[in-house]
Amino acid sequence: MVSYGAALASEAPDDTMKIKFSSDINAYRITLSDPPLHILDIEMLGELRDALANVRNDKHCLIIDAEGEKAFSAGASVQDHIGDRVIEMLRRFHDCFRMLSRLELTTVALVRGAALGGGCELAMGCDFILASDRARFGQPEINLGVFPPVAAYQLSHSVAERRGLELLLTGDPIDAATAERIGLINAVFAGADFDTKANEWLARLYRHSASSLRFTKKAFRLAQSADFEGRLAQIEKLYLEELMKTKDANEGLNAFIEKRKPVWS
């Protein structure tokens, strides 16, 4: 969930929306709009939650993308993990995933740059991920002494157990080719052709009945019998009531903000 780039992000003016929402005949589109890193702070998460509330199950897809090519999102704000702010941040963050998990239409993430921490979780929260060959994926939270609650669930379901645990415990990012090889993403396209190739890929969905896509997705989820919301609640409790009370978790977050190496106890 945490961002490695949070300390580098500049705050947008108060009158600037950090999320853009649009739609066409085939799809809704939510675009992260706080470049260059699209840090998921409390304000942006509130806007994302509001945008998701406007998505109806009456089109083929919901597309989530981001402006620019540097990052899809470098993750959630480290500053919002400090003190009591972490409770509100986690509530908004997890609300977004609960809303995503309840959508019946197909959800697709278009990732052109780095998807790290919460940004990687947001991409994995979609049914499909289409990536540029410049994209990178990773969960660097362990470097800060914490873990990503949503990714702990996602990676236990979306890739082989050992590969998922490796991503969580090492914090090392992987490139798009590796992500495709281990089944984390669906397709990789050259950066120069990304928009064209992504639209061609999406056209494979648009040629089918939107209602039939929704019923087929529902059948697939029923077959999985995965209790996402119940398990996320247990992981969230572990994060807030146990992890965030440890010295190392607070040391890691504070060390990042203070731009120094953490001293683990």
Task: Quickly list its features.
265 residues; alpha/beta; 2-enoyl-CoA Hydratase, Chain A, domain 1; 4-stranded mixed sheet; 10 helices; 44% helix
**Structural Rg:** 18 Å
CATH class: Alpha Beta
Number of domains: 1
The number of helical elements comes to 10
Number of strands: 10
Architecture (CATH level 2) name: Alpha-Beta Complex
What can be said about the biggest beta sheet?
6 strands, mixed
Compressed to H and E, one letter per element, the order equals EEHEEHEEHEEHHEHEHHHH
Mean pLDDT: 92
Low-confidence stretches: 4-14
Category from helices, strands and their pairing: alpha/beta
Query: Could you give me the name of the CATH homologous superfamily?
Result: 2-enoyl-CoA Hydratase, Chain A, domain 1
CATH topology, by name, is 2-enoyl-CoA Hydratase, Chain A, domain 1
Q: What would you call the shape?
A: globular
State the strand order across the main sheet.
1-2-3-5-7-10
How many angstroms does the end-to-end distance come to? 23 Å
Strand composition percent: 15-25%
Helix content: 40-55%
Would you kindly provide a written description of the structure presented here, covering whatever features stand out?
- The strands form 2 sheets. A 6-stranded mixed sheet has the order 1-2-3-5-7-10, sandwiched between helices. The protein has a 4-stranded mixed sheet with strand order 4-6-8-9.
- The chain is globular.
- α4 packs antiparallel against α5 (161-170).
- It contains 10 helices and 10 strands.
- Helices cover 44% and strands 16% of the residues.
- α1 (42-53) links the parallel β2 (27-32) and β3.
- It has a single domain (6-191, 211-257), classed as 2-enoyl-CoA Hydratase, Chain A, domain 1 (Alpha-Beta Complex).
- It is α/β, with parallel strands linked by helices and 265 residues long.
